[in-house]
């Protein structure tokens, strides 16, 4: 029997001494950032990567870009353009995930798709129980050249025949 416990420790400095209590025995860690706020990428490198390496060095890390729906929001794009910025791109997220040694990069939105949030937990679960330390990307015929996890069959069902793609599933999670 396996247990899933989810802790959401706040990043506020006030909790810096208490937050490490949530890390012991963690098999996986989700490091999240806000796609509509490029400055949140800095906290991934400056705070969360180092903290997770220090307190749970054996945990698999999944980098998650949240608020995917805001990437194309006109108000967000207008506000960011005032500072000569754009929302975080999928490529930037994938690059950062590789840079911090994450086993997966996922993007999700809870506004339009509960499935994309579910996919993030699915990818994290696969990463935490996988006996392979670093799953490799599979090349696909898609424009970005990566096979997304929602298009892959469960490991026990990988055969020569491609799986039918479920259109109700988000196509935002990438195993790396």
TrEMBL record:
GO terms for molecular function: GTP binding; GTPase activity. Coiled coil: none annotated. Gene3D superfamilies: P-loop containing nucleotide triphosphate hydrolases. The keyword Cell inner membrane does not apply. Residues 156-176 have a biased composition (Basic and acidic residues). Signal peptide: none annotated. GO terms for biological process: small GTPase-mediated signal transduction. PROSITE patterns: RAB, RAS, RHO. Residues 138-176 are annotated as: Disordered. It comes from the Eukaryota. Keywords: GTP-binding, Nucleotide-binding. PANTHER family: RHO FAMILY GTPASE. This is (Atlantic silverside) hypothetical protein. It comes from Menidia menidia (Atlantic silverside).
């Amino acid at each position: 029997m396996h247990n899933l416990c989810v802790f959401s420790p706040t990043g506020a400095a006030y909790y810096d001494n208490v937050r490490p209590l949530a890390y012991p025995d963690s098999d996986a860690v989700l490091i999240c950032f806000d796609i509509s706020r490029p400055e949140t990428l800095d906290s991934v490198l400056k705070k969360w990567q180092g903290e997770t390496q220090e307190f749970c060095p054996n945990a698999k890390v999944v980098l998650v870009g949240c608020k995917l729906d805001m990437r194309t929001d006109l108000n967000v794009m207008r506000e960011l353009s005032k500072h000569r910025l754009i929302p975080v791109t999928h490529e930037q997220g994938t690059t950062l995930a590789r840079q911090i040694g994450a086993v997966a990069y996922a993007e999700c939105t809870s506004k339009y798709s509960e499935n994309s949030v579910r996919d993030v937990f699915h990818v994290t679960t696969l990463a935490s129980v996988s006996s392979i330390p670093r799953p490799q990307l599979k090349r696909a015929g898609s424009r970005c050249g990566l096979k997304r996890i929602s298009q892959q069959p469960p490991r026990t069902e990988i055969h020569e025949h491609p799986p039918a793609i479920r259109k109700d599933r988000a196509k935002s999670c990438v195993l790396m």
